[in-house]
TrEMBL record:
Residues 333-342 have a biased composition (Acidic residues). Residues 278-290, 302-317 have a biased composition (Polar residues). It comes from Phaffia rhodozyma (Yeast). Belongs to the 1-acyl-sn-glycerol-3-phosphate acyltransferase family. This is 1-acyl-sn-glycerol-3-phosphate acyltransferase. GO terms for molecular function: 1-acylglycerol-3-phosphate O-acyltransferase activity.
Amino acid sequence: MTLVGTLLKPFTTLSLLSVPILFVFRMKSQKARYYINLSIYTLCLLTTSAVAIGISLTLTLFGQRLNTNYWVARTFYKLTSPILGIKIEIEGREHLENNGGPAVLVGNHQSFMDILYLGAMFPKKASIMAKKELSYVPFLGWWMSLSGTVWIDRKKSKNAIQAMSRAAEEIKKKQISVFIFPEGTRSSTPNASLLPFKKGAFHLAVQAQVPVIPIVCQNYHHIFDGKTRMNGGVLRLQILPPISTTGFTADSVGDLSDKTRETMLTALVELSPPASLDESSITSASTANRESTEQRPLLYSQVASVDSDTNDSNLETTYGAISGEARESGAITEEDEVDEDGAVVVPRPKAEDSR
């Protein structure tokens, strides 16, 4: 036996002994199960990120760089799903084909567990749009860069607009799809709900003249609540028919966003199990105010992104002031729709302000 083997033997033995112990705790204690499963999920994510660098380099050498996300996503799902006991059932996968053409894919965003459903459904020849900060994360940021991720700089509005323009050109030139979370940030509640949509994804679809394909994962708060619960189970994912943008202009973006959100919310409610009474009561107080202000629950709300012709200074302050740099350029005014998860700045033509 080598010296290294001798030194590692106690650790190997300890690791093997710890497996049944962890399994017992995982089965007996809800709290222990949460932390053990969360650790397993994180470890699988880190492992896949490390392996993804090799996958990215290999596929690039063989001219298959645009399929990197597909193979990395499947690797993560195949590794993580059986360990955690979470299975994704997909309906409507044929809609991803879109007759062989590109599209802007939009999905609801509940937590970082969404990576699991992306792993099960992510198509070939598709990339993602993400905040630039992720590019600095070891392993994760490295393979994302190698896979052609479109980075959004949240701190520089002009850079975000340029990234959007590049993304539209890439879609048309390379015939690739782009995945975006239109809510812009995570929203995890016991009840099936969607935050108001940012309009960046829809501006991108209109600019590239490609359809929007809505992707809806059922509410999984009963499986993962981000605090004390992380269990196994089956999650239903529905890929809805493409929504055409042919002939649409910047003036059509608002209606396109509203139609997509309404379609996704309807599907989300149908897919999701009802929240238990105790869970609903916990969050009822925090959501009551938001729900009471919704004049049209499916399409519009007081917390929707602020139009440039809005006179409500409180709303404008809450959701971001117009970029001073872009205002001075005279070309456009902008809604600051860049948030913690990398939603993009939405350019709004100056002509719209005169309405």
